Amino acid sequence: MSSYHLDHLQYLETEAIHIMREVAAEFERPAILFSGGKDSICLLRLAEKAFRPSDIPMPLLNVETGHEFPELIEFRDRRAKELGAKLIVRTVEEALKKGIAHPTPGQISRNQLQIPVLLGAIEEFQFDCAIGGARRDEEKARAKERFFSFRDSFGQWDPKNQRPEIWNLYNARVNPGENMRVFPLSNWTEMDVWEYVKSERLEVPNIYFSHERECFRRGGQWIPIPPAQSDPTKPDPYAGARPKPNEPVQKLVVRVRTIADMISTGMVESRADSVDDIIAEIAAARVTERGSRADDKASEAAMEDRKKAGYF
Amino acid sequence: MPHTQHPIEILRFNTCGSVDDGKSTLIGRLLYDSKSLMEDQLEALERSADITGGGQINLANLTDGLRAEREQGITIDVAYRYFATPKRKFIVADTPGHVQYTRNMVSGASTANLSVVLVDARQGVIEQTRRHTFIAALLGIPHLVIAVNKMDLVDWQEERFLEIRDEIEDFLPKLGAFRDVKFIPISALDGDNVVDASKKTPWFEGPALLHHLETVHIASDRNLTTLRFPVQWVNRPNNPTDRELHDFRGLSGQIASGIVHRGQEVVVLPAGIKTRVANIWNYDTPLDEAFCPQSVTLCLEHDIDISRGDMIVGLENLPGRNAELHAQVCWMHSRPLQPGKKYFLKHATQTVQAIVTKLESRVNMTTLEAEADPAALAINDIGGVRVKTAKPLVFDGYTTNHLTGSFILIEQGTNATVAAGMLSAPTEAVTPEYTDFAI
């Protein structure tokens, strides 16, 4: 009987596939949020496993801040093409032009501005469900999140009034205008994600591996130097995110542990240049993945507040 | 499928107890002592300790992730935490103790292999201890740990520990069902008997809580004897250019119980059609067999009309099929159950309309006795009901199969999940009039 056994990755995988199929069966117009980051890479493999030999029955959606690592964008586009999936990209830039989003004065990160863009895309395509790669171990407001997380017609999360989730019976019902965010990786940890990347031999963008990069120190983080301004006649999209005279630039051997955009991702010094090295590094790590995210450090309730406003 | 060198199992457990029993502190302690707490989390704890805690680190702040929880110092919602030791990985559901959050305890406990019920050594067994133990038994959680906490505040007296143990052992037989029950004297605050055996309890043979969590035998909790495969999604590539894909018709789903073999004879219910499993698909490889809880795609020998909500079962131990059902429900919504009102009932992979035709009983949470003919079932009540569905369900009793014996009720209009239900065993098995295919 001992062979009828699932190890932890197989258990997490079968749970996530079940959830993906529930989405396909219960929603009219679902989408998968795909950024090209490690968690959403796992989501796509799970989607393949859930639906092959059929095509993945939903498009991929990404919200660009305009501050992305170029390596990530290249990877995202290539992976979507390999899968034969439809990729929809909506940008903060566009939303600013249309007046849907407005930057907070003095705020250089566009993290918050992703919210109206995401909500706009959901409305534009009438998505009733968006599958995301968020994990409960990332952050303590996320630890309270359901697999099927209901959002009202304003896209808001109400943490005190969540639908109870019992057994594997997910209540997927929404009224027109409302939508669901679904998180198949809820029970996965950072380690599980990398072990899955390894066991499935998944390709990840090369910025996850150690490389030389010019960085500067700000807010206790190594911030990457943004790309040079391509058109000096236009306003610098990275204004405020470039090193000041008192912030000396250093060439370091670094990698990213978690990817937001270039402004809010701290690089970590690392020699890990293979998936095995990364797994060893995480096993020995003494800080969490989100320790290098400036967006989460704003306050103890930073994530909770963003989620209430419609963040994924 | 991935295979690591030493397959590591996942154990899911939930912690419950009343307010201030120290649940969150216990989880914080397990994370801290198993070195699963990271420096930035500790830093955040220290920061909030300086602001609100007078310098004392409050491990509960780790799981109480919502602003309202930190303000009120209580757990409102289920929080999930993850940690690992070299022996096992753990998914912890920290469930609230407050009486008005019973529904959240039911949610957090429904998927658990094991339940840890905390008892404050000073207060002893209180109504909530009984309620939480009762719910764990009702949900069919196989393993139970009674952690008698705050033993430091009763000077680690063995007599006190035994007194509490005896009192719980007195009412346990009424609840039935647990495979094993362990009593452990602990101090979550100081960590005694949490990760390592404590020197303060020479009278206690052990094990420490973590050791028990690492070693308790869960492999035989699964039902591997009776095949149940609720059809979740019909996989039809409809690919016009590839002939093989054009004809592919697979039935995707997660095996709720049992093992399925290629070539096995199966029955499709409710139609009652007998056929064989031609192929078992797992993404890119055909399998000879698959078992619960794997998610797979089955191809059948005959092209039968099958859709989501149907159930594929083995020829032995057939399930029941009925539109009139008896169940225990836990009511989860502030609007009480209204007999005669139409709800949606989601069972396995199908959703049907249903009405509750009769309230038969309501559990008195103090005596744990079922009282007949209640006036109402309101939020956090548990009781026996009769349900009529618009279409017969193919089902098992909850005690023999959690996944084919459970349902949720959804309120029409608001779409709120209003109840969790556990079906009583069918009075008779379905007798399909087999339509055999002539081959």
Describe what you observe in this structure.
The complex is a heterodimer of chains A (312) and B (439). In chain A, 29% of the residues lie in helices and 15% in strands. The model of chain A has no long low-confidence stretch (mean pLDDT 90). Chain A contains eight helices and ten strands. Chain B has three domains: 9-221, Rossmann fold; 228-314, Translation factors (Elongation Factor Tu (Ef-tu), domain 3, Beta Barrel); 320-423, Elongation Factor Tu (Ef-tu), domain 3. Chain B has eight helices and 24 strands. Chain B starts with 8 loop residues before the first strand and ends with a strand. The model of chain B has no long low-confidence stretch (mean pLDDT 88). Chains A and B meet through helix 1, helix 2 and helix 6 of A and helix 2, helix 3, strand 2, helix 4 and strand 9 of B.
List segments of chain A where confidence is low: pLDDT < 50 over at least 5 consecutive residues.
none
- CATH class placement of the largest domain in chain A: Alpha Beta
Helix content of chain B: 10-25%
Indicate the structural class of chain B.
Answer: alpha+beta
For the largest interface in this structure, which chains are involved and how many residues does each contribute? A-B, 67 and 80 residues
Structural class of chain A: alpha/beta
Number of domains of chain A: 2
Distance separating the two termini of chain A? 42 Å
Largest sheet of chain A: 6 strands, mixed
Radius of gyration of CA atoms of chain B, rounded to a whole number: 24 Å
SSE arrangement:
The complex is a heterodimer of chains A (312) and B (439).
Chain A: H1 8-26, E1 30-33, H2 38-51, E2 60-64, H3 70-83, E3 87-91, H4 92-98, H5 114-124, E4 129-131, E5 148-151, E6 179-182, H6 190-199, E7 211-218, E8 221-224, E9 249-256, E10 267-269, H7 275-284, H8 302-308
Parallel strand pairs in A: 1-2, 1-4, 2-3, 4-6
Antiparallel strand pairs in A: 5-6, 7-8, 7-9, 9-10
Chain B: E1 9-16, H1 23-33, H2 39-52, H3 67-72, E2 79-84, E3 88-94, H4 102-109, E4 114-120, H5 127-138, E5 143-149, H6 158-175, E6 180-185, H7 209-215, E7 228-230, E8 233-235, H8 243-246, E9 250-254, E10 259-261, E11 265-269, E12 273-282, E13 285-287, E14 289-291, E15 295-300, E16 311-314, E17 320-331, E18 342-347, E19 350-364, E20 369-372, E21 382-395, E22 406-411, E23 417-423, E24 435-436
Parallel strand pairs in B: 1-3, 1-4, 4-5, 5-6, 12-24
Antiparallel strand pairs in B: 2-3, 7-16, 8-9, 9-15, 10-14, 11-12, 11-16, 12-13, 12-15, 17-21, 17-23, 18-19, 18-22, 19-20, 19-21, 22-23
